[in-house]
Amino acid sequence: MEIPVEKNKEYIVNIIDNGCDGEGIAKIDGYTIFISNGIKGEKCKILILKVTPSYAFGKIVEIIEKSPARIEVDCITYKRCGGCTLRHIEYNTTLAMKQSIVQNLVNKTLEEKINVEETIGMKNPTHYRNKAQYPVGLNKNSSPIVGIFAQRSHEIIEMENCFIQNPISIIISKKIIDFIKDNNITVYNEQTGNGFIRHIVIKVGIKTKEVMCILVNNGENLPKEKELVNVIKEEFENNKELQQYKLKTIIKNVNNRNTNVILGSKNVILYGDGYIYDKLGKYTFKISPMSFYQTNPIQTEILYNKAMEFANLTGNETVLDLYCGIGTIGIFASDKAKKVYGIEIVEDAVKDAIENAKLNNVQNIEFLCGDVEKTLEEVISRRGKPDIIFVDPPRRGLDNTTISNILKTEPAKMVYISCNPATMVRDLKMLEEKYEVKKIQPVDMFPYTSHVECVTLLQLKESM
Ligand SMILES: C[S@@+](CC[C@H](N)C(=O)[O-])C[C@H]1O[C@@H](n2cnc3c(N)ncnc32)[C@H](O)[C@@H]1O
Question: What's the pTM?
Fold first, then answer.
């Protein structure tokens, strides 16, 4: 096919759809052009930035016909920041876009083209995140800054305010940066491997107001760490915006590897007891530095309640909670099930899960530490066939061994929770061999980003 566009030339196009990352999609003679920030329904003059044999990338030069969904952007770092991608679009439209992203995947991949439910949005989609992970670096004047990585880059954009983070995370991080500057503590340099602080991670219990502050450090030695701990403690006492929160713990995380992975494997408690609590529904959960905990707890309650509604437990079922983290889904299911087993690979998360069961007086649950791929078959052969399986895997979805073990076991129902609809729908296609996909419910856990969480109900074909 002859490529109908040239790099550095301008064209007028109609944006006919939005892609998985929120980008606008246009076609010239059937050839696809991805246009950042374009909204379906708009007519734009675009400049072509990159051409490949099967598609091109362009940017908007002028909007000729504007979508009614386009809104004024309220964030000064939005254009360069890699955090949100949909702040230029009115919120309800972003919810419809997310539904249609999932629907398109279903239509392309699944045998049964079921209608995806409308995305459940947030009443107030701001400052919803309970975890911030800020990289620390230097600005152009070689002064330490804290911020966020620019899109597809390791340049750090200094942050003033963030509309999706809990506001206290930036206040604490800036205080730490001031201390680093005043005491001439060097920050980590990716190229040389020298310097100390690499990241500041803040976890907040939204309901309990408890705060964990993690200083990710290049090695064991952090100069003046006692003084830094005192400065953070004093800030919680003196800063009015922090006064309703409780500094529960400060942790030094040791990471001296040349890697993009934020946390190293060793944690040293500098203050407090090393964990925070938060509440979801009627349950309290202990959260350690290494444990996964959903980042939008308001929507998590909605997501888990939807998962429970889909499971429709009667009290007689044996339930498996695969990729169980700190045990949240299994504990939510426990009062409607006969027995629950959770499997999780991170040892600290399993320890939290066991404590969480005790904390909530849940006695019919057991947690096992292991890789689902390697342990599921044995768990089923020793503990018996489950009636229902919840899965909530990481973004890469399920592996083939796990899918074939589930297909062999034939639980009557599955509830698949996923933060990546592309891998979820890929897995659903394989599960369609024995299961009917009954419902897919998107839940907006990540407002103004292109990410969408889904909860899906599958029912064994023979059991229907
Ligand atoms: C998306 S999180 C879900 C956690 C939990 N269900 C929740 O809602 O908080 C995925 C979890 O899977 C765990 N995990 C990743 N790979 C795993 C594997 N191969 N086997 C078991 N657990 C795994 C991660 O540590 C993480 O806790």
Answer: 0.93
